[in-house]
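## retry 2 of 3
previous attempt timed out at serialization; input unchanged, resubmitting
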Amino acid sequence: MRLTCYTFGDYVPPMRVAPASREWMDQTPQGFAYRCLPLNIANAHGWELLCPARITAVWDGGVAPKSVSVFGPGAGQTAVGHFGSGVLTFHVHALFVTDPGWNLYVTGSPNTAKHGIAPLTGIIETDWSPATFTMNWRFTAPNIPVVFEKDEPFAFLFPVPRGQVEAVEPDVRRIADEPDLQAAYQEWSEGRNKFLADLRVQGSDASKRGWQKNYFQGRAADGVPPVPDHQTKLKLKPFPGLPPKPKA
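## retry succeeded, writing output
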């Protein structure tokens, strides 16, 4: 699957492979947040578009587009109040195109929060549309200045197959009807409860280990070989070339 960024002239919007790291995760004691592999994978599950210049945006609580004010070198060209109702709109100065049958999922960077504003999420049919898209955020409260620093991500995107979610057949079953699965779950549950109890015992093996690594290692239980296609990190390809110096 190819994801192509078509530029308008020589300017390439600043973008990067999304990192697995997050500042708030760095600040957790002993970096314990990184022990949660699902967080790590989600963090790195796409590409980020970066703010080309620092902006400050404020919403006065009104519904008109002019109720959102944007200040700084990135005002106007980078972000504006366009839709109204407390929505801040970022321009994407490029055309993204996916292979036939693939959409582009566009949102804010996962597991990242900004005080006073939240990302809106869109799924775009980028395999046929010749139109650019915008990335939008909605203020959560009025009169709170929100700053996007230069090179801070304002959008996070990754391709998804069109129609795949509609092909899913939801089902509900009793776990007792699947004896092998029930036994595996019971083994995991008992092992988890024992580990948590032993964790509070000074000098125990659990207290020395600090955390169970079965899921991180792709194992259903201790002693079981890891799942062959288990992932502990993603290796996305970057867009070729380095972006030129962003326009002020």
